[in-house]
Amino acid sequence: MLTVEDYAKIRIAKRDGMSIRAICRTRHHSHHTVTKAIENPQPRPYTRTEPTVAPVLGSFMPVIDQILLDDRSEPVKQRHKASKIYRRLRDEYGYKGGYDQVRRYVKKHRKQQRETFIPLAHDPGQRLEADFGHIYVDFPWGRKRVPVLLTTWSHSSFRFSTAFPSEKLECVLTGLVRAFEFFGCVARELWWDNPKTVVQEIFKGRKRQMHPHYAALASHYMFEPLFCMPAKPNEKSHVENSVFDLQRDWATPVPKVKDYDELNDYLRQCCLKKMDHRVAGKTETVAERFEQDKAAALALPDYAFDPYVSSAAKVDKYQTVRFETNRYSVPRRWAFEMVTVKAYPFGIRIVASDRPIAYHKRCYGQHQQILEPLHYLAVLGRRPAALDHSDVFRSWQLPACFAELRGRLERREGPFAGARQYIRILQLLAEHPLKRIQKAVELCMAHSTINAQAIINKVHHLAQKQPYVELTEPNHTHCYQIQVPKPDLNKFDQYLTTVNQGEAHYV
Question: What three-state secondary structure class fits 220?
């Protein structure tokens, strides 16, 4: 077979005036070959002008076409492979040919049916895509598979990511509230696939029945909730690429953190580092394109959405309410009453009469009891034996001076009377912070004034110097504060309940 160089020599010889016959004689080629080289600058590859089909397969082609057509309405993982089609032709239709003929025909047929796409350009501020990705993270308690909620702007590719212990609805709501606050604006459309926590039922086309809490979030921020067609993740390709970066870049090597706070700080920094990145095919940076998104997006509302999932529950005789499979304690005065349990990703808030009465760190275990000792102090006065026979008090971590105080009281007053006086001191925690009572105990012990009344008087004396109350909530809860009107001073006492322990704390 002649090469391009051979063609070039023949054409140059013809250009210089040599006849075709002379070229044939000197180059030792046929007249047809020389003529073809003169007419074409380079050899043409062999191409088949008409498709050929093995005679044996020809009569079975309609059967294969029908099988592949029927497969379009079948589950993706239960469709025919070429080997299965071959076996069916052989066993059911008497096919005598080879497997390779069937394989080549199926491959050609599927290539013709492959889906192609049209490049899209999304308007600034219009579209935000959301999805969960999963990574492994090393915590002090071991390696754990962690869901990460990612949101990505379709125009600018700017991202936000935040990790949660689960993919429950309250995590979705909290993650989106955080995303809106991080971006400082709200997209006009928010796209998901069809997670069961958000979509309760899928109808024909793009119509969905959403969970009421998600619908409330959409109404609060005034974005249009939209969903991809089933099994069509390519409709939100920007966030799919974000999931890939999360797993292959941000989480490689496996992150080592002490808690979710540190993990989310790291993920936030990863998002910010992408600000100077240029998306393929774009001349502007992510930061520059996001400014266009922000200018065209919706403004944040005056206050944030409260991202909880609630359920009604009745307090039982153990002063606990059930949420999922776990039980959480409440103060004695709410025993046997109906309350509302508000679940957040990292906390459980219990509300009665439109005000919080208890707050607990959320437990993701099964059939656990999460009890706050302060909730049982009122009952402890009538049941002092529970001090030593109840896990809620035996596992209570108090400063060392409390154990020393109890020992001195029992040695001085006797086991029963000493325990009674010690319980009176513990009950001060219903009205005063631990540090104030600890200071009073240490001062009295230093002056050898070891009795309950003296310590009570000292606590009241210290309280007069610092009469103000600070409402606090632990940072690890990640729950958002609800804005409420300024209280009437005549009703100030009803707001002296902490969301952390359900009792009043004084500074």
Answer: helix
Three-class SS of 120-138: CCCCCCCEEEEEEEEEEEE
Q: Which residues, 6 or more positions from 469, have their beta carbon under 8 angstroms from its beta carbon?
A: 496, 504, 505, 506, 507
The residue count of the chain comes to 507
H/E element, 21: helix 20-27
**Distance between CA atoms of residues 92 and 86, nearest Å:** 10
How much is the mean pLDDT over the chain?
A: 85
Q: Is the peptide bond prior to 331 cis by the omega test (within 30 degrees of 0)?
A: no
Alpha-carbon gap, residue 471 to 355, rounded angstroms: 13
Mean pLDDT of 389-407: 89
Q: Is the pLDDT of residue 486 over 90?
A: no
| Pairing between β-strand 309-314 and β-strand 369-370 as defined by DSSP bridges | unpaired
Angle, helices 31-39 vs 4-15, to 10°: value is 90
Beta strand extents in 346-441 (DSSP E only): 347-352, 355-361, 369-370
Return the minimum-mean-pLDDT range out of 17-26, 37-46, 53-62, 345-354: 53-62
- Confirm if 159 and 151 have CB atoms less than 8 A apart: yes
**Nearest CA among 62, 54, 60 for reference residue 100:** 54
The highest-level CATH class for domain 127-296 is alpha beta
Q: What is the DSSP letter of 177?
A: H
DSSP 8-state code for residue 45: P
Residue 143 neighbours by CB distance under 10 Å: 11
Read off the pLDDT of each residue in 88-115 and give the average, rounded to a whole number: 85
**The model's pTM:** 0.70
Other CB atoms within 10 A of residue 207 CB: 9
Cα–Cα distance measured from residue 359 to residue 503, given in angstroms and rounded to the nearest whole number: 10
Choose among 235, 233, 34: nearest CA to 132.
Answer: 233
Per-residue CA distances from 295 to 165, 239, 287 (Å) = 34, 21, 12
Let me know the angle formed at the C-alpha of 382 by 376 and 384, rounded to the nearest 5 degrees.
Answer: 80
Q: In sequence order, what are the beta bridge partners of 320?
A: 329
Distance CA 428, CA 380 (A): 12
The torsion angles phi and psi of 455, rounded to 5 degrees, stand at -70, -40
For the chain, give the longest Cα–Cα distance.
132
How is residue 328 annotated by DSSP?
E
Nearest to 148 by CA among 128, 175, 170, 127: 175
The domain segmentation of the chain, as residue ranges, is: 4-39, 55-113, 127-296, 375-465
Distance between CA 93 and CA 81 in Å, rounded? 17
Render the burial of 299-337: b for 16+ CB within 10 Å, e for the rest. eeeeebbbbbbeeebebeeebbbebbebbbbbbeebbee
What one-character DSSP code corresponds to residue 423?
H
Q: Which two tokens stand for residue 472?
A: 């606090």
d(CA 363, CA 142): 17
Neighbours of 205 (CB within 10 A): 7
